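Need tokens for this chain, all 105 residues.
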Amino acid sequence: MPESEITVETNPADLDQPLLESMRHAGINRINIGIQSFDEKVLGFLGRRHSVKQALSAIETSRKAGFHNIGLDLIYGVPGQDVEAGWIAWIRPSFFCRSTSPVIN
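Here are the structure tokens for all 105 residues:
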């Protein structure tokens, strides 16, 4: 029987090594991180508690804790977003982080 996928939804501001390791020990094998944007201005507009630096750190720390199946939530079409010029810049970091499944809402 294949291994079940057990996912937890997280906020980058809440993630640290001990928490991530405890999730792995509890059997969680997929993490979905609500990054929403790699743009500080957009994060501020959305009222997010994390910075771009924290988002990137959350991805790296998740990998170090043993997560190989990582999803990133990104928001598309935020008021004021330059869709033509800005969207590629927004999603590019998710590919450099080797996320297995960016989710665009």
